[in-house]
Design goal:
alpha/beta; 7-stranded mixed sheet; two-stranded antiparallel ribbon; 6 helices; 11 strands
Length: 195
């Protein structure tokens, strides 16, 4: 069984979400692989709430290298897909190779995790209809117009889909993510034992 997790992001991706995912998977002995439209240095952003603002503010965040271009990725090489939020999903949802990759993970019945605006890729790929998900509050209308059920909870699991609202929901989200990855690991161990 693969211990690789594909982290999907791009320029404008949320710094907290990308760095936390990368380090958390390393800590748990999984192999995170960052994918973006092209293999290069990515400019991440910090998104946060400030008093007096009606929406979040955005500031330059960390720089991080993409390990691989989306077009060089095959879902069969990974245990799960993690779609990170921030501004990146706004333009990634227009990239047909990104949407095809999301569909490929779904067709192979792999876990798909998305946080914040990352859920926009699932709506654009046509994968939300009939599912209950959460995400950033500003994407509720997109989810509902795509036939999904949006709930305002920190983290939600619907079958092989795990979604979360924002980086503030990391504890709830990653508890669910690692519970699911534990199921993947146990299933692989059982298959090896039966040989």
């Amino acid at each position: 069984m693969s211990r690789k997790i594909l982290l999907l992001t791009g320029d404008g991706g949320d710094s907290y979400e990308v760095l936390y995912a990368y380090q958390r998977f390393l800590e748990a002995r999984w192999e995170p692989v960052i994918a973006a439209p092209s293999r290069r240095l990515l400019h991440l952003m910090i998104h946060d709430r400030e008093p007096g603002w009606s929406t979040y503010v955005e500031r330059p965040g960390h720089l991080m290298d993409a390990d691989v271009a989306v077009t060089a990725v095959a879902a069969k090489e990974f245990a799960a897909l993690m779609i990170l939020g921030g501004r990146a999903p706004e333009y990634l949802r227009n990239d047909t190779s990104v949407l095809a990759l999301c569909r490929e993970f779904a067709e192979q019945d792999k876990y798909i995790c998305a946080i914040g605006h990352g859920v926009q890729l699932l709506t654009a790929a046509g994968l939300i209809s009939g599912r209950t998900v959460t995400g950033h509050e500003h994407i509720q209308i997109e989810v509902e117009r795509s036939g999904g059920n949006y709930v305002a909870k920190p983290a939600v699991r619907d079958g092989k889909f795990i979604t979360a609202q924002t980086w503030r929901c990391h504890p709830e989200f990653y508890r669910e993510v690692f519970s699911c990855l534990g199921e993947v690991s146990r299933g692989a161990s059982m298959r090896q034992e039966s040989r």
